[in-house]
Amino acid sequence: MGMAPSHDPGLVRIRDLLHGIAALLAVGGACQAATHWSAAEQAAIVGCIASLGLQPPGGQGPQYVVTQVSSEIESVDLRHARLHGTAPLDVYIGVVESARPAGVVLSASDTAIHLPPGQLFTLEVRGDTGTQQFSCTSGTSLRDIADGVNAFGFQTGVWANWNLSRVHFQSNSVGAGAFVSVRIIEGYAEGNAAMYGTPTSNPWAPDPATRSDSASDYGSDPVVTMNGHLATNVGLRYSVNVPELRVHVTLDDVWVWGAFRAFQVRRAH
What we know:
4 helices, 41% strand, single chain, elongated, alpha+beta, five-stranded antiparallel beta sheet, four-stranded antiparallel beta sheet
């Protein structure tokens, strides 16, 4: 049984405010700001409403609340949630593939660049944040090339790692928005080095089929399941729409990994 309505002016104002907030939670699309409230904030609002004996506006179907939210979760959108049955549902998230940065490889016949006399070797390096060029002469080691590229890493968003006869160029960012492109604009035909794409399983292994004067790559977002169902995503916002669960979850960051209990969903009334 709910509490009798109060006529105290202060409590009436609080009641009216909570009704307004409840309307935002209940009516999807009524206010886009509702999508930015975290799961903890939504739970607190619903709890306040219940403690005063109030109900969210009718006609919107069952209302849900999320509790016990893992630190790996930034927010949970329950405005369109749907549960099969009335029992609380534990939601487990499995990150079956971690986020990947973009990466390409420069590979040479030995640990230095070799060119005809007077010929330059010039790279154009493009990343998320800019483009720069690096030039060197014959005899320059691949280690020095990596150091030269890293000198403007903050300008391009691309960093280079050296290992014997290879330089691995990798985006500083990870996820589907990460990008790297490296092009040999001078010294490709005359020299002993080429650009390659790489298999995702081994970023240091040049793919022979991709040998060229240029190579580019995009990163990838985590692959996520919720209670065993593969989730679709836009960036770090993941969604499932199955009979027992319809919910949108935003992960805290791209480094989330493994399987974990993410949160619990239950009816608010």
